[in-house]
Amino acid sequence: MLMGVAGFFAFAAGFANYPVVEPVPNAKPWIRGAYHVHTTRSDGNGTPAKVAQAAKAAGLDFVVLTDHNDFKPPAATWVDGVLLIPGVELSTSVGHLAAFGMQRHIEGVKPWGPPEQAVAAVEAAGGTAVLAHPVQTKNPWKDEATAHQVPGFELYSADTFFRQALRSPVSRLLPALGASMVNPVHGVMLLAVPESGPTERFLELARERKRLVLCGNDAHGVPAYEDIFNALDMEFPPDVLSGPLSQDAREAANQVTQALSSGQALCVFRALGAPEGFALEGFDVNTREAPVGTVLTVRLPEHTPGNLEVRVWGDGRLQPDGRHVELTGPGVVQVEVWAHAPGRFFGHEWRPWLVPSPVRVVPRPPGI
């Protein structure tokens, strides 16, 4: 019975067309990469070389490796034209903390130790800490004090999507498994069904200070690295980081990690299309702040009418034209672009496509 149902979804997957948004002709390419990837140095099933091979096949420029409790990872290196950047995912007593951009080895922390120790160790090493899959049934972040200190937040996590699907095996997991037999990337995309918990938690934390949105591939090799990399990545607009990257691996790694920590990186569900032509305008790009009453502009690439829509959470209101967002704060606003993507059957379902970091809405200065 289950095989028959899976076969139906496999048949439907043969009619799933990607991308939803066609590439912009002659556009300057964005630097692309995968963040939160595991190898055989911890619980991944591929060596760093195999990961680089998969990344190259997916068209990526870099991969941030975050093996569990890998306190002394190998230095940054170019492998098969892909930059492998050292990072780590620390296991603490209250959840997992990912980190990248360390200038020194992390010291003074042990697996499953207190969270404040891990946060302090990452900061001392000059790195950027990220709450990994912080709203998840298996490994949520459970400490309130340190949650307010950590600048990064995995708003969308492939691992969390998979674990959410396990709770709905017939309606979500089985369609994805069936689709994967014919169209592996479509199978991965069918898992991308966001729930409200991560966004609500993220907005709560982002009201206080500048926060970074990251999307975690959390790739272990199943599904295949290449399929995960084709579905989801982190990208930099050319005005944030233009190619080519330095051939000195350490210098290139610093370029990428500084851009990741700037808040100007974009999470892209790449299977749905390239982001060239997108921009969110009207705020200070360094502080990611704008006063109450400001109207942000969302610029979209050319697309088929009805295939894209702007969605807004927090202290902002989408105007009737669907392209401008009035900031109603003070507080924070999250603006995303969603696409009408191939669904489980022969229809379509709305899925996130472009996910920038949030904009803090600050009080308007007196007299203005």
Brief description of this entry?
The protein contains ten helices and 19 strands.
Give structural notes.
Residues 33-94 form the Polymerase/histidinol phosphatase N-terminal domain. With 368 residues, the protein is α+β, with helices and mostly antiparallel strands. The protein has a domain at 8-16 and 30-238 and 246-276: Metal-dependent hydrolases (TIM Barrel), CATH 3.20.20.140. Helices cover 26% and strands 28% of the residues. The chain is built from 10 helices and 19 strands. The strands form 2 sheets. It has a 15-stranded mixed sheet that branches. α1 crosses α6 and α6 (169-180) runs antiparallel to α7. The model has no long low-confidence stretch (mean pLDDT 94).
Key terms:
368 residues, alpha+beta, TIM Barrel, 26% helix, PHP domain-containing protein, 5'-3' DNA exonuclease activity, Pol/histidinol_Pase-like, PHP_dom, Pol/His_phosphatase_N
CATH class placement of the domain at 8-16 and 30-238 and 246-276 = Alpha Beta
Radius of gyration, rounded?
Answer: 20 Å
What's the helical proportion of residues?
A: 25-40%
Structural category is alpha+beta
CATH topology-level fold name of the domain at 8-16 and 30-238 and 246-276:
TIM Barrel
Tell me the name of the CATH homologous superfamily of the domain at 8-16 and 30-238 and 246-276.
Metal-dependent hydrolases
Estimate the strand proportion.
25-35%
The rough form would be described as globular
| Unreliable stretches covering 5 or more consecutive residues | none
What is the assembly state of the chains in this entry? single chain
End-to-end Cα distance, whole Å, is 67 Å
H-E order: HEHEEEEHEHEHHHHEHEHEEEEEEEEEE
Main β-sheet description: 15 strands, mixed
Query: Could you tell me the mean pLDDT?
Result: 94
Task: Please identify, by name, the CATH architecture of the domain at 8-16 and 30-238 and 246-276.
Answer: Alpha-Beta Barrel
User: How many strands?
Assistant: 19
How many helical elements? 10
